[in-house]
């Protein structure tokens, strides 16, 4: 009887908002447990539809109670209306959700810089069913006091912590209010806690639950295995052409029909280097129509990107527009829902396996076969550059998929699939599909990565006067290059020219090892024109 009542109430709530989507098993399990007044920790795969879980809750609480009364069943929740609070990490995510909820006819408010007096009054009276808040705003005087009024004491049904892994990752660092969310248990003791994330180990779940005050909770866990994603990883040099020639070729040949791709970099400098490499390689072919940013096939996205530009990039990637590749830091992350991304490329290993899982999981959210490629450098897998699990993922000769599954879902049976799966499994398969799949992203060439011993590397004598002269000439060269980019004055000279003082110093300090263009392009620069200019300076001074 209870199951029938739940299904009846759920279907009514979905119909009310014209939601035709069939809820998945784990979504229903989370919703039903919350409705039974149980705290829930939901670990669901990326792209599973976590937001839909709390979308239906306000209506569902009310409808379920009304049906319970009609059926002469004592209602589990003695409330005639329902409010939920959703705690999210990013303002941009909350603003997007506010628009999405309001479009669906669900009254929702982001409680940031709220100054709409009518809306404020409705919020105080409990007439807005979904409130979106950051941990910081939650504990500001105005909104904290809101929770103590009678309306919220009676009718706040659930507190949802979206992207719950941030509680552990950020709470003890730069966003300490995450560690205070557990205080809500005493402020609104009737409210259920629903924690949602895609990536969490047993240890981190235990920590997060403790911080949130979830002493007893229902664990709803799905496999983190994204079966439609193929995984590739390779140690590479810093020569961008070796790793990205296939992306450039696709843009040149297919233009706005090129598959959508996200390239994740460890820092802004790497983003700018790849961006300028794409510009150099494609030239006028980088644009569809008039050469300008909005007509470019690729874009750069990081925390310093103006908000207006960020919004345009996200919107363009969501639509079937000109933007096909986004070169980004982790700023292009949570809340970015682009279902048809076909490639996620990491230029440098992620600093944590959790971050890698989140980022690679942005590929193929529409269920169509997609690819994760991790190009890592020896420095990325050095001690303290990445966590142990990420290093293991990069270096393993075993199945990369199973490395991920066993870390996040150890109770899930390991996959026995060798076709297709990852570059290591593909080596065991000789079919044409696997051979073709492997050839674009992974090369057979071993990179020496500057790891030769000094004693066996050819070198030449270079005097201190010659080094000083080369340094002066390189600095002059950088100044001349910067003049070519005056129209891009918003960017620093380092980014525009791919040269910093450290780069010049590195070249000068290793000048005795540099004999030809390849020595420069293997280890210091990626653009042939720049390498030619440097080599000309060296040859002139050392002749």
UniProtKB/TrEMBL annotation:
Keywords: ATP-binding, DNA-binding, Helicase, Hydrolase, Isomerase, Nucleotide-binding, Nucleus. GO terms for cellular component: chromosome; cytoplasm; nucleus. It catalyses: Couples ATP hydrolysis with the unwinding of duplex DNA by translocating in the 3'-5' direction. The keyword Hydrolase applies. Residues 247-416 form the Helicase C-terminal domain. One of its GO terms (biological process) is double-strand break repair via homologous recombination. Gene3D superfamilies: P-loop containing nucleotide triphosphate hydrolases. It holds the Pfam family Helicase_C. SMART domains: DEXDc (SM00487), HELICc (SM00490). InterPro entries: DEAD/DEAH_box_helicase_dom (IPR011545), DNA/RNA_helicase_DEAH_CS (IPR002464), DNA_helicase_ATP-dep_RecQ (IPR004589), Helicase_ATP-bd (IPR014001), Helicase_C-like (IPR001650), P-loop_NTPase (IPR027417). The keyword Transport does not apply. Its EC number is 5.6.2.4. One of its GO terms (molecular function) is four-way junction helicase activity. Residues 31-218 form the Helicase ATP-binding domain. It is an enzyme of class 5 (isomerase). Belongs to the helicase family. RecQ subfamily. This is DNA 3'-5' helicase. It comes from Mytilus galloprovincialis.
């Amino acid at each position: 009887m209870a199951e029938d009542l739940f299904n009846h109430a759920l279907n009514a709530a979905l119909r009310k908002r014209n939601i035709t989507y069939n809820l998945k098993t784990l979504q229903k399990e989370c919703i039903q447990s919350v409705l039974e007044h149980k705290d829930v920790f939901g670990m669901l795969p990326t792209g599973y539809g976590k937001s839909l879980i709390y979308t239906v809750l306000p209506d569902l609480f009310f409808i379920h109670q009304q049906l319970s009364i009609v059926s002469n069943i004592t209602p589990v929740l003695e409330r005639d209306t329902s409010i939920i609070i959703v705690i999210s990490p990013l303002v941009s995510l909350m603003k997007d959700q506010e628009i999405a909820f309001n479009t669906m006819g669900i009254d929702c408010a982001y409680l940031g810089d709220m100054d709409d007096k009518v809306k404020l009054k409705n919020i105080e009276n409990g007439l807005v069913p979904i409130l979106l808040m950051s941990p910081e705003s939650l504990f500001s005087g105005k909104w904290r006091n809101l929770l103590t009024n009678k309306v919220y004491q009676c009718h706040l049904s659930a507190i949802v912590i979206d992207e719950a892994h941030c509680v552990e990752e950020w709470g003890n660092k730069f966003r300490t209010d995450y560690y205070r969310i557990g205080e809500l248990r005493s402020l609104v003791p009737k409210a259920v806690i629903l924690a949602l994330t895609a990536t969490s180990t047993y240890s981190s779940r235990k920590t997060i639950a403790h911080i949130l005050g979830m002493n007893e909770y229902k664990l709803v866990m799905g496999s983190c295995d994204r079966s439609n994603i193929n995984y590739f990883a390779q140690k590479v040099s810093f020569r961008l052409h070796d790793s990205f020639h296939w992306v450039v070729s696709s843009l040149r040949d297919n233009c706005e029909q090129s598959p959508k791709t996200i390239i994740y970099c460890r820092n802004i400098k790497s983003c700018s280097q790849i961006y300028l490499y794409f510009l150099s390689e494609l030239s006028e072919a980088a644009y569809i129509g008039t050469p300008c940013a909005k007509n470019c096939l690729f874009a750069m996205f990081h925390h310093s990107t103006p908000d207006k530009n960020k919004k345009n990039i996200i919107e363009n990637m969501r639509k079937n527009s000109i933007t096909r590749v986004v070169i980004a830091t982790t700023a292009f992350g949570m809340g970015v829902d682009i279902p048809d991304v076909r490639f996620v490329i990491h230029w440098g290993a992620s600093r944590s396996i959790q971050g890698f899982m989140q980022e690679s999981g942005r590929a193929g959210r529409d269920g169509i076969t997609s690819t994760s490629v991790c190009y890592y450098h020896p420095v990325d897998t050095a001690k303290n550059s990445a966590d142990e699990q990420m290093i293991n993922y990069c270096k393993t000769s075993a199945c990369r998929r199973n490395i991920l599954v066993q870390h996040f879902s150890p109770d899930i049976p390991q996959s026995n699939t060798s076709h297709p799966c990852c570059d290591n499994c593909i080596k065991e398969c000789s079919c044409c599909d696997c051979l073709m799949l492997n050839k674009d992203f992974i090369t057979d060439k071993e990179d020496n990565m500057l790891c030769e011993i000094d004693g066996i590397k050819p070198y030449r004598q270079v005097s201190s006067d010659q080094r000083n002269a080369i340094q002066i000439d390189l600095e002059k060269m950088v100044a001349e290059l910067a003049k070519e980019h005056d129209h891009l004055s918003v960017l620093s000279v380092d980014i525009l020219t791919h040269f910093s003082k450290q780069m010049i110093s590195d070249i000068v300090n290793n000048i005795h090892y540099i004999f030809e263009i390849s020595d420069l392009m293997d280890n210091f620069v990626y653009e042939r024109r720049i390498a030619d200019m440097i080599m000309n300076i060296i040859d002139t001074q050392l002749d």
